Amino acid sequence: MSFVITIGRQYGSGGRFIAQKLAEKLGVNFYDNDLLTKVAEETGMSKAVLDNYDEKRDGFFSGVVPSSFGTDMSLGQKVFLAQFETIRHLAERESCIIVGRCADYVLREFPNVVNVFITAPLEKRIERAEKYYGLDPKKSRDIILKMDKKRANYYNFYSDKKWDRADSYNLTIDSSVGIDEACEIIRAYAAKKLKIEL
Amino acid sequence: MSFVITIGRQYGSGGRFIAQKLAEKLGVNFYDNDLLTKVAEETGMSKAVLDNYDEKRDGFFSGVVPSSFGTDMSLGQKVFLAQFETIRHLAERESCIIVGRCADYVLREFPNVVNVFITAPLEKRIERAEKYYGLDPKKSRDIILKMDKKRANYYNFYSDKKWDRADSYNLTIDSSVGIDEACEIIRAYAAKKLKIEL
């Protein structure tokens, strides 16, 4: 039986790293920005354009999502829909872990999907972002809050749920418990939820 | 080492039941409405009055919480402060599980506290509330949403966090994984977070 674990994350919470480690432990693929490479392969869209619109809303979105790739769509919309299709193709084809990109919403009708969100106290996220992403300590707090806002905007716009709400997910974890520990808790929850050995 | 696990919950999510089962498994006391019996014992306030203000905001609250039990406080305020004191006394005295009542906020400076929130999809909560609390199927949905709103109002007013946000807690769980399964995940997380055997 194939399954998908989607992992949303506050900026600097270590969510991406947790997803990557979990994928290694479970022996499945992990898609983050790599998803855009897949999208580029499937659609012929340029990776640079895809990167530019990744998890961002563009400014001229009309609010209506047409079901086909018409020319009346903004580039941001096209990127969203291309990702949407690629996420669905992946879920039909293989067990995997997908980070961000509204994958939980895109796969809402799929069976065997577990939706996880990673949080951490702001001070821990600041510490982590300065250490691992090299953020300037004078600006790190502002950058983190801005990145969260961007992700929330994208998620709240394209999905019918709220990015920061507990009930948008099956499981949310404060990663200050530890990276390996968080992986273990997700593994345990997913196994129980999917009723399989993991 | 003593510890406290606080458990907030959406109405009908089974959070109270999970807390009770977990307390049995861990061999510690569990406080829900019983907390009010403790408050009555400690303060001499009437249990009926305490029940009336339990997890509710009264309408005439000035917005200033004085540090002593002055006569200028509304009854709702007095009940909140009496609960606050009782929760602190409990946490100083014993390991326990406390359901709702802003215990996570009250104990924010205490070491060895793990804050959990239980969610479930609305349709599961409706099913549960009709089955176990005997709610009228015509009204169950409205009652559930109203109870959630009441709890959120109380929490958002007395704490500096938001009741429904993932990052207000260390762990949030969709209980549709199963009651025993949710207990097991909380136990596993708490053991890792507190660095003890549980």
Verbal overview:
2 copies of one chain form a homodimer. By secondary structure, the first copy, chain A, is of the alpha/beta class. Chain A has a single domain, classed as Rossmann fold. Chain A is 49% helix and 12% strand. Chain A has 8 helices and 5 strands. Chain A has helices at 15-26, 34-43, 47-53, 75-93, 103-106, 122-132, 140-158, 179-194, and strands spanning 4-9, 29-31, 96-99, 113-119, 171-174. The first copy, chain A, has a 5-stranded parallel beta sheet with strand order 2-3-1-4-5, with helices on both faces. The A-B interface holds A 10, 117, 119, 121, 164-174, 176-178, 181, 184-185, 188-189, 192-193 and B 10, 117, 119-121, 164-174, 176-178, 181, 184-185, 188-189, 192-193.
Short description:
The first copy, chain A, is of the alpha/beta class. Helix content of chain A is 49%, strand content 12%. Chain A has a single domain, classed as Rossmann fold (3-Layer(aba) Sandwich).
Key phrases:
5-stranded parallel beta sheet; alpha/beta; homodimer; Rossmann fold
